[in-house]
């Protein structure tokens, strides 16, 4: 049986779903193109995603295409309970509520896997990894394939593949151009700022914001922070990305130096202990720490908890730690700030990501017998079709190459 916080929230969740659908016409076009064919008829599709209004559009789209759908959360704190209740009312097997314990979180993932899904769509690869740890080789159940939404999850899957342990083909949706160029940059950039502002209600103009990591997520955060008047410092371990940040007009320095100037520190690396003891000790009174990465490992929260003389919640999703006479503020327990303290990405950018997800699931269903157990990129035709759908949804027309130009492009002399 589905398990949600409060089934009575379904009507409120329906309104959230309807609002998202108004702004996700890119995804709607993909669904409309395939709904008569119903390519997922008879297929069990599992989703381990942040349960938001945008996710509801993807989940309902999979059902429209014929799938038997189950859903759990990709983070213990990111579920929107009204959306979970709405989806459960629509016949979706939902196992998700906000503020799950870690035991409850993994129990929900196990409940979805117990449905023996044919495909797994994950965000962070907790479901993929749990299948390999607890289900692989212990029964005759094996998915035909999967997809992965985020950088952290792709890294884990590549490690499985490199060890020869990956049990089924997976498409790295995160790596689609129409995903990481827009979702990671524009979506996370805006929604992380949204989460910081909701949690703190501070003025960004004039503040020093340190952004750890200058991948697509870090670029988006740095750009949005500067756009709101902040002075931005970037920290990096990759010399090429550091050079790019410098050329983009940001100050670049090591974290141990940047920490001394920071009013706000935002991590966006996917790595462990990016902000740690020596950095926190160097920070000034009142600094705010936020994480935009998938897992709560980028800020050393354990050190904060074990060394604070006093700890209290001062606002929703904002805790104060008193250390060495200073106040250190942590947003969302060090978990992904845009989903814990805000509502996640705007629907317009999630429409791009979820169109890639849905079309990749359909691709796996049709082609899994010819695929090896490895991590694949999103097929180029899917990426391009999503871009075409996006332009059409926005009412944007572009040129087409002439016959002469096509012939010229083939010449070498």
TrEMBL record:
Superkingdom of source: Archaea
Assigned GO CC terms: cytosol
CDD domains: SAHH (cd00401)
UniProt keyword annotations, A-Z: Hydrolase, NAD, One-carbon metabolism
Binding of substrate, residues: 52, 123, 149, 179, 183
Family statement: Belongs to the adenosylhomocysteinase family.
Name recorded for this polypeptide: Adenosylhomocysteinase
Species annotation: Candidatus Nitrosocaldus cavascurensis
Gene: ahcY
């Amino acid at each position: 049986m589905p398990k949600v916080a409060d089934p009575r929230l379904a009507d409120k969740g329906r309104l959230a779903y309807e609002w998202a659908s108004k702004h996700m016409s890119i995804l709607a076009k993909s669904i409309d193109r395939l709904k008569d064919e119903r390519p997922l008829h008879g297929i069990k599709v599992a989703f381990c995603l942040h349960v938001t209004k945008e996710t509801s559009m993807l989940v309902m789209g999979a059902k429209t295409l014929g799938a038997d759908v189950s859903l759990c959360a990709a983070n213990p704190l990111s579920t929107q309970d009204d959306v979970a209740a709405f989806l459960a009312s629509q016949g979706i097997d939902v196992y998700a509520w906000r503020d799950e314990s870690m035991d409850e979180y993994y129990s929900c993932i196990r409940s979805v896997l117990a449905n023996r899904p044919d495909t797994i769509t994950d965000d962070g690869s907790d479901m993929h990894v749990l299948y390999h740890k607890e289900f692989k080789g212990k029964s005759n159940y094996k998915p035909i394939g999967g997809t992965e939404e985020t950088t952290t999850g792709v890294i884990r899957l590549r490690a499985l593949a490199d060890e020869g342990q990956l049990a089924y083909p997976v498409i790295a949706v995160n790596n689609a151009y129409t995903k990481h160029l827009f979702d990671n940059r524009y979506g996370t950039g805006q929604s992380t700022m949204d989460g910081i502002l909701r949690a703190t209600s501070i003025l960004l103009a004039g503040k020093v914001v340190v952004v750890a990591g200058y991948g697509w997520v870090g670029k988006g955060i740095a750009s949005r922070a500067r756009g709101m008047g902040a002075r931005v410092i970037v920290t990096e371990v990759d010399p090429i990305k550091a050079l790019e940040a410098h050329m983009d007009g940001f100050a670049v320095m090591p974290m141990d130096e940047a920490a001394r100037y920071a009013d706000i520190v935002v991590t966006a690396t996917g790595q462990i202990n990016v902000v740690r003891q020596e950095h926190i000790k160097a920070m000034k009174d009142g600094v705010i720490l936020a994480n935009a990465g998938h897992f709560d490992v980028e800020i050393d929260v354990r050190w904060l908890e074990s060394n604070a003389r006093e700890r209290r919640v001062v606002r929703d999703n904002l805790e104060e730690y008193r250390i060495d006479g200073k106040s250190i503020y942590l947003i969302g327990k060090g978990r992904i700030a845009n989903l814990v303290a805000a509502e996640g990405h705007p629907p317009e950018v999630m429409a791009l990501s979820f169109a890639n997800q849905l079309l990749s699931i359909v691709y796996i269903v049709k082609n899994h017998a010819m695929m090896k157990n490895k991590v694949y990129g999103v097929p180029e035709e899917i990426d391009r079709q999503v871009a075409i759908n996006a332009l059409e949804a926005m009412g944007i027309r572009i040129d087409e190459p002439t016959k002469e130009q096509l012939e010229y492009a083939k010449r070498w002399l």
